[in-house]
Amino acid sequence: MSGPIRHIVMWRLRGETSEERSAARLKVKTLFEGLKGRIDGLTHIEVGLDVSDVDYACDVVLFSEFTNQAALAAYATHPEHLRVREALGDLRTGRFQVDYPIKETGA
């Protein structure tokens, strides 16, 4: 794959109370949004917090795009990304990921 790739990650987070879960969600959002403009090849990053409040929903979704597969691979070991992962520690209880190529469309 040589074209752009989309990287989507969803997490379920720890928290005994709704306040703790809200704080955890905000922490994830703040840390990942702080990566904007800091990693070569990361062309888009968006973090959404679940508002459905259904028991099977994830708490947070990360929607990001990279110039290519190599940029996504470099992101996985980039010091800024590793700093975020370390700051989150064991906050997550579940993690789900999908990576797929983005079809380029003509104008």
TrEMBL record:
Q: Name one Pfam family in it.
A: Dabb
Q: Which Gene3D superfamilies match?
A: 3.30.70.100
Q: Which domain of life is it from?
A: Bacteria
Q: Where is the Stress-response A/B barrel domain?
A: 5-100
Q: SUPFAM superfamilies under this entry?
A: Dimeric alpha+beta barrel (SSF54909)
Against InterPro entries, the record matches this protein to:
Dabb (IPR013097), Dimeric_a/b-barrel (IPR011008)
Q: By what name is this protein known?
A: Stress responsive protein
Q: Which organism is it from?
A: Bradyrhizobium centrolobii
- From which lineage does this chain's organism come? Bacteria, Pseudomonadati, Pseudomonadota, Alphaproteobacteria, Hyphomicrobiales
